[in-house]
Amino acid sequence: MSNKILGMGNALVDVLTVLQSDEMLDRLNLPKGSMQLIDETMLQQLHKETADYTAHYVAGGSASNTLSILARLGIETEFIGKIGKDEIGKFFQQETKSNGVIPSFFFSQHPSGRCTVLISADGERTMCTYLGASADMTANDLTHDLFDEFRLFHIEGYLVQNYDLIQSAITLAKKAGLTVSLDLSSFNVVEEHLNFLRQIIVDKVDIVFANEDEVKALTGKDLLEATKELASMCSIAVVKTGKKGSIIQHGEDVLHIPIYEAVRVDTTGAGDAYAAGFLYGWINQLPLEMSGQIGSFLAANVIEEIGPKIMPDRWENIYQWINKLTHV
Number of folded domains in the chain? Predict the structure, then answer.
């Protein structure tokens, strides 16, 4: 059986900026911790507002981040996305390859997408996303052969504004016999597309990743009841609850996974790292609890750095830690 993972998401370059205070968020009416879709006018405004700050550039996008970490863990991964024929697109393509992920890109005449990530002093991140070329991906781009020889298809909720694309991708994945996992991505995405998300989860999604705000937005219930309802809609519900750890529910089995202590610098990519760790465990047929522990440990490594990637000097320790955990 193949152990390859296919992912699809917005091909975005993250532009990471650490704020001195939250004054800018308030002034620009950006809810702290949210993801806002912005137009070119707002993109230029943010560029002007952050001109005096140091910016870090990194190939981002939720599904792309997850696949990059899975690739470092030795899983063969491929990423479907759409980029522009520009420097940002070229940067994304090169970074994808250097992260060990096989790129499967379509090209657009529009500028490549980017996400301005505003990082508050407490590590919380507020994301302003200019989708650009990434939003030009359509159901017509997808073909059956894209889904051949994979075992799992991972998709990010940020794509959900394109219903036809999501429906087509998941249908093709299911026809090819793939397990489907979905990361809900952001509470405001869930609120805006509630009925559609509930429908596709029940019909075609096997594994759902959510945080506490997202699962509450999806179900309208408090945490434990919300997790229970999500688990009734799919095979495996994974709910991340910040400092309280995470909850994994499969049928009637409920697991509580603690966090690993870390110095929180920037939460960008923490959920993506958790998903990578969990899917690494799942594809290697490890127990769900162990999969959750690996996810939690990887998330702890991400939040101690600026940006969504795990720094190179951490990997040897991570490999040793996973080896020890899985060979007890």
Answer: 1
